[in-house]
């Protein structure tokens, strides 16, 4: 949810002549040649001098075996000092014609390292050198590992033949081989990776690992892949558009709905799991896990549809979802409330609540969706807003926030999902809000009448701590917003009743707020969000391991619900943690697609015995 242009500030080149009016291609080619020459000479001082003083280098595994952003020349020099010799980068080349906008030249790149091949993006801008002449400096650089040398995926020209031509020692059919593999895995042969959680994150990672030849199992407690979606309230649809949500290898067809209904997503995930041959155990619950430091592996006890099994993976991935562990509040009087109470994750939809009074605690995405479905079925519904909420209309988000990268127009202009993902990833989190603020200024002006109606109804709006809007709220705290697909008009006209304040207690048949307001209720829905993913580690492994890992998600932006210090990447997501062999994977469909690649490559490298010295292992500043 970002734009590809630079923030709307003054151009860094204003007032100076271009040195030779070189084309963007010539400027990029020259910079890359000088950059590679300095890297080859291991001249770190020369390398850092080619970057702006306020530079950012975001590396996804290629140099650091980590997800790490270094900021400024000093951090850049420290990273290169530690990693340049081992990485041995070379062959930096622009992959298509660079572009220039507002004095910034942007180029897609490819390169090689000692162990792999990578792609990335470079942004150059001009600054005066010591003699008063302009020269190109790197402002942002993204480097990503795309494949490991000698361990490439069998795809394209190198895909497997499939048919048996000539003699073959193993005469079994494909189906017989698959059946034997499934019978042996977890019994006579152990997975190298155990992925706990079979939603879109676990399935996407399972597909990546399958293609890379890493023995793995994805386990999930539901009866079928996709049940995580099927079991939600019946009117649920994705709020992100289809172009943003493709899974690896197999994009949605071009007749797929823009906003997919939850049951359609559930069916797609089940189909995807089968077609991509993801080793998937449904009806499976992990009951305990422990790590043997000396052996370097886990012992995980599982119940697979009544069968007890002990698995001993080397790597354990918790793909239980960023929105996976319900945050159920504790209020006095819950034990005496005579009606039904449940968390939004367990909400069945409006069926069965006819004639009842429903109070929904919360005012973000789930609360709005649930309230909308309830009132559209004639059910008396009150939403309790406990704190301000950021609202953005779906069509405004699509046109202004996502259109340049993830839209039909972007596809028509040549934007692929991969290029969009690289562009998106190339924006350092430290300055991403600067790109977002102008977008939400546009949205606020475009939809000012809409926002005016909401405020007139008493709804408490915000645009984030720094007016940077939806996506920064998502990255920083994972909550506090609603993408409007119709519920807000029902709030504005009073169809969805609105109450404000903190819940003080429940009585037998009401919810009482701190100011004494009493809301009659037969049903209470807690749309109160989800806790940190390390809560799953506490439940499965132990609180000591959860504390060793620390809080999962957030950037350290020191904004609401995202305490500092600044960390520069998502805490503990898709990268090594302080607990050896423990990883976290999740997020929305876009993140499950994009970051599953980097997590899978890190796991593949370890499986193959490749040395993976981690630069900048994240410190623990917060426990939950």
Automatic annotation (TrEMBL):
PANTHER family in alphabetical order: FLAVIN-BINDING MONOOXYGENASE-LIKE PROTEIN (AFU_ORTHOLOGUE AFUA_4G09220)
Entry-linked Pfam families: FMO-like
Region called Disordered, residue ranges: 1-28, 154-176
Composition-biased stretches (Basic and acidic residues): 15-28, 167-176
Biased composition (Polar residues): 1-14
Family statement drawn from the similarity comment of this UniProt entry: Belongs to the FAD-binding monooxygenase family.
Protein name per its UniProtKB record: FAD-dependent oxidoreductase
SUPFAM superfamilies, per database record: FAD/NAD(P)-binding domain (SSF51905), NTF2-like (SSF54427)
Keywords attached to this entry: FAD, Flavoprotein, Oxidoreductase
Keyword check for Oxidoreductase: yes
UniProt keyword annotation of Transcription present: no
């Amino acid at each position: 949810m970002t734009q590809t242009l630079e923030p709307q500030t003054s151009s860094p080149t204003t007032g100076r002549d271009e040195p030779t009016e070189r084309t963007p291609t010539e400027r990029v080619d020259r910079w890359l040649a000088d950059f590679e020459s300095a890297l080859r000479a291991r001249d770190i001082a020369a390398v850092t001098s080619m970057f702006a003083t306020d530079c950012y280098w975001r590396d996804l595994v290629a140099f650091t075996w980590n997800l790490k952003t270094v900021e400024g020349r000093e951090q850049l020099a420290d990273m290169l000092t530690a990693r340049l010799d081992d990485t041995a980068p070379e062959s930096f080349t622009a992959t298509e014609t660079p572009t220039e906008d507002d004095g910034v030249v942007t180029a897609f790149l490819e390169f090689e390292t000692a162990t792999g091949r990578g792609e990335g993006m470079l942004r150059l801008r001009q600054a005066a050198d010591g003699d008063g002449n302009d020269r190109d400096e790197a402002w942002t650089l993204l480097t990503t590992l795309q494949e490991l040398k000698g361990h490439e995926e069998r795809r394209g020209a190198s895909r497997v033949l499939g048919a048996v031509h000539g003699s073959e020692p193993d005469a079994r059919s494909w189906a017989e081989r698959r059946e034997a593999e499934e019978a042996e895995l977890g019994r006579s042969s152990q997975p190298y990776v155990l992925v706990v959680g079979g939603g879109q994150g676990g399935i996407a990672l399972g597909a990546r690992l399958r293609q890379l030849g890493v023995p793995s199992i994805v386990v999930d407690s539901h009866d079928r892949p996709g049940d995580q979606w099927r079991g939600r309230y019946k009117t649920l649809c994705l709020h992100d558009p289809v172009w943003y949500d493709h899974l690896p290898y197999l994009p949605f067809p071009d007749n797929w709905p823009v906003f997919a209904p939850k049951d359609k997503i559930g069916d797609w995930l089940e189909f995807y799991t089968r077609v991509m041959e993801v080793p998937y155990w449904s009806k499976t619950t992990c009951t305990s896990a422990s790590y043997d430091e000396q052996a370097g592996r886990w012992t995980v006890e599982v119940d697979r549809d009544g069968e007890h099994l002990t698995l001993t993976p080397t790597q354990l991935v918790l793909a239980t979802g960023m929105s996976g562990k319900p945050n159920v509040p504790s209020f006095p009087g819950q034990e005496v409330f005579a009606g039904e109470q449940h968390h939004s994750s367990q909400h069945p939809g409006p069926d069965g609540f006819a004639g009842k009074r429903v109070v929904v605690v919360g005012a973000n995405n789930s609360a709005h969706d649930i309230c909308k479905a309830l009132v559209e079925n004639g059910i008396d519904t009150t939403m309790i807003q406990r704190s301000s909420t950021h609202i953005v209309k779906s069509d405004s988000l699509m046109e202004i926030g996502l259109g340049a990268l993830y839209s039909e127009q972007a596809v028509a202009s040549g934007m692929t999902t991969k290029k969009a993902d690289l562009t998106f990833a190339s924006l350092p989190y430290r300055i991403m809000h600067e790109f977002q603020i102008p977008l939400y200024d546009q949205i606020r002006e475009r939809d000012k009448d809409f926002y005016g109606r909401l405020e007139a109804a008493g709804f408490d709006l915000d645009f984030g701590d720094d007016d940077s809007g939806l996506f920064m709220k998502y990255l920083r705290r994972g909550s506090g917003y609603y993408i409007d697909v119709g519920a807000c008009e029902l709030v504005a006209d009073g169809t969805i009743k609105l109450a404000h304040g903190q819940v003080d207690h429940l009585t037998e048949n009401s919810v009482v707020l701190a100011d004494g307001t009493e809301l009659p209720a037969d049903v209470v829905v807690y749309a109160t969000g989800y806790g940190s993913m390390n809560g799953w580690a506490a439940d499965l492994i132990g609180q000591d391991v959860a504390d060793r890992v620390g809080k999962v998600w957030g950037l350290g932006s020191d904004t609401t619900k995202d305490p500092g210090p600044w960390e520069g990447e998502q805490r503990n997501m898709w990268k090594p943690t302080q607990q050896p062999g423990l990883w976290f994977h999740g997020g929305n469909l876009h993140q499950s697609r994009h970051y599953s690649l980097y997590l899978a490559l890190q796991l593949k490298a370890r499986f193959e015995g490749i040395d993976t010295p981690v630069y900048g292992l994240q410190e623990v500043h917060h426990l939950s």
